[in-house]
């Protein structure tokens, strides 16, 4: 199970995505992540554990960009680790 949110906006969307993930956390407590695009560059933050862990990471190292996605994960396949947290990404895709 998981929760997914995406936003196309005019300002930084990461704070709005986190607010959306708070409403979706019941769909996955094991890990969470956010990816944004700013000036054609994809960046992301992921964390195993409850959403609060990701929120702390974003406070210390914010994401910028007006386009983004967020994901909560319930670990049904693979352990609840930072590497298994979504969104997965390549250099250009998340």
What can you see in these coordinates?
- It is a single chain.
- The protein has helices at residues 14-24, 51-60; strands spanning 2-8, 31-38, 41-48, 67-73.
- It is of the alpha+beta class and 94 residues long.
- The chain has a single domain (3-84), classed as 2-Layer Sandwich (Dna Ligase, domain 1).
- It has a 4-stranded antiparallel β-sheet, with helices on one face.
- A hairpin with a 2-residue loop joins strand 2 (31-38) and strand 3.
- The two termini are 18 Å apart.
- The model has no long low-confidence stretch (mean pLDDT 90).
Structure, briefly:
This protein is α+β, with helices and mostly antiparallel strands. It has two helices and four strands; from the N terminus they run βαββαβ. It has helices at residues 14-24, 51-60, and strands spanning 2-8, 31-38, 41-48, 67-73.
The unreliable regions are none
> At the third CATH level, what is the topology name?
Dna Ligase, domain 1
Number of helices: 2
Quaternary form: single chain
Features:
Dna Ligase, domain 1; 4-stranded antiparallel β-sheet; alpha+beta; 4 strands; 94 residues
């Amino acid at each position: 199970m998981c929760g997914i949110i995406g936003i196309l906006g005019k300002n930084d969307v990461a704070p709005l995505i986190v607010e959306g993930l708070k409403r979706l956390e019941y769909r996955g407590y094991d890990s969470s992540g956010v990816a944004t695009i700013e000036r054609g560059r994809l960046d992301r933050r992921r964390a195993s554990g409850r959403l609060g862990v990701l929120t702390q990471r974003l406070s210390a190292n914010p994401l910028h960009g007006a386009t983004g996605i967020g994901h909560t994960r319930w670990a049904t396949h693979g352990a609840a680790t930072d590497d298994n947290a979504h969104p997965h990404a390549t250099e250009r895709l998340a």
